[in-house]
Specification:
Helices cover 29% and strands 27% of the residues. It is of the alpha/beta class. The strands form six sheets. A four-stranded mixed β-sheet has the order 2-3-1-12, covered by helices on one side. It has a four-stranded mixed β-sheet with strand order 4-5-7-6. A four-stranded mixed β-sheet has the order 8-9-11-10, covered by helices on one side. Helix 6 runs parallel beside helix 8 and helix 6 packs parallel to helix 10. The chain starts with a strand and ends with a helix.
């Protein structure tokens, strides 16, 4: 959205991020790579994207964030579409509030991609989200940068705040007022340099592996520990995890730390309410850890899991049950009876990167190992996962 060049350091080259770069190029930005995990982006400005057909691939975050920016570009038109999985991901939760702001959007069956957008003048609004969602919130904040007047997003509980931090650093007028995030229109953004810390969602697979495999001890460096993202650490520590944290100076507005994890005996817990949006992507790993814990773990208020790359309530339940776990799905979560471990076996990733990586971690911790059909799905968010996980094994 900036007009000047933006440098992104520690960029992850994965399928989702590649789709995002191709999307910004489609609307007019120029992307240049340098050696190492660094790229430079020459932006088109807050009000400069051109009409295009955009392929979002499998990137659900891109599908839900990009319309917020494009909806206010008067006179331009876009179509956003993606792969078979994306075409099953509902977008009504962004379409409804964007239309409330004056946006002109059309969706298949009024809730599914492809999404057609005719840029139109927007006006600010106050929108109370029925479910906490950082993706919906971010979409509306982007739209608010272009809208007339103030845009207020009211959250039922806090969700990850990376967007607010990044927009504020780029010069946007973003404020937190109680349970609301408020944004006002601006003329331009200047992102400058952005350092991306290690993603806690990716790190979580190694954290859980270290906890479950006897004798393990690992250290993870430069991990993002934004308070709105570390619900997984709080949950695991409540279950008995031993996680030492050495805080580092903030990395361009995002807190980071080195984490040291040792194997531990785990006990059951309950995960619900405000904790859910702080750990939504890591809940499959909570379920895996619960299989090795003592007692019965309950996950509730997590119906959002059914709207991910797969229905993660059903796919996690099926995977862990196939490996010898005792897991019962509920409408909005799971009940896991800890049995002290898993037998092993075969699971299907269902094209979901997190289910694929879950299976790999379960394989290391199980008695007989796990074969994952569709392991290639991990490349969506972590193309080097198998190599990195293998590098930790004692030979």
């Amino acid at each position: 959205m900036g007009e000047e060049e933006t440098e992104v350091v520690n960029y992850l080259r994965a399928a989702d991020t590649r789709s995002t770069l191709e999307a910004v190029e489609a609307v007019g930005a120029e992307v240049q790579f340098r050696t190492g995990p660094v790229l430079r982006i020459q932006g088109v400005g807050l009000r400069g994207p051109r009409s295009a057909e955009v392929d979002v691939g499998n990137a659900g975050t891109l599908l839900r964030l990009l319309p917020g920016w494009l909806a206010g570009q008067v006179g331009e038109r876009w179509t956003l579409d993606g792969d078979e999985s994306i075409r099953r991901r509902p977008v009504d939760r962004i379409a409804v509030p964007l239309r409330q702001m004056g946006a002109r959007l059309a969706c298949r069956d009024d809730r599914l991609p492809p999404v057609k957008i005719d840029g139109a003048p927007l006006h600010g609004t106050a929108y109370e989200m029925p479910v906490a969602s950082a993706q919906v919130k971010s979409c509306l904040l982007f739209a608010g940068l272009l809208a007339e007047g103030e845009t207020r997003v009211i959250e039922p509980s806090p969700s990850r705040d990376h967007t607010e931090r990044m927009l504020a650093a780029a010069g946007a007028a973003v404020d937190h007022e109680g349970d609301s995030v408020v944004v006002r229109p601006v003329d331009r953004l200047v992102p400058g340099r952005i350092f991306v810390p290690t993603d806690i969602s990716s790190a979580a697979f190694f954290i859980v592996a270290a906890l479950l495999i006897e004798g393990s001890q690992i250290r993870l460096e430069d991990v993002g520990v934004n308070p709105t993202r570390i619900g997984i650490l709080t949950i695991l520590e409540r279950m008995g995890a031993r996680i030492e944290r050495d805080d580092l100076p903030d990395l361009d507005g995002e807190p980071a730390a080195d984490l040291e994890i040792r194997a531990a005996q785990l006990r059951a817990t309950e995960v619900s309410g405000a904790e859910i949006p702080l750990a939504i992507d890591e809940l499959p790993l909570v379920a895996l850890a619960a299989c090795f814990a003592e007692g019965t773990t309950t996950i509730r208020d997590a119906a959002e899991l059914r709207r991910k790359e797969s229905d993660r309530i059903e796919t996690v339940t099926a995977a862990l049950t196939a490996l010898g776990g005792q897991v019962e799905p509920t409408e909005d979560g799971m009940v896991i009876e800890g049995t002290g471990g898993l037998r092993g076996g075969t699971i299907d990733s269902h094209g979901d990167h997190r289910i694929a990586m879950l299976g790999a971690v379960a394989g290391l911790a199980s008695r007989e190992g796990v074969e994952v059909a569709g392991m290639e799905a991990a490349a969506v968010s972590y193309p080097g996962f198998e190599h990195d996980l293998g590098s930790l094994l004692c030979r």
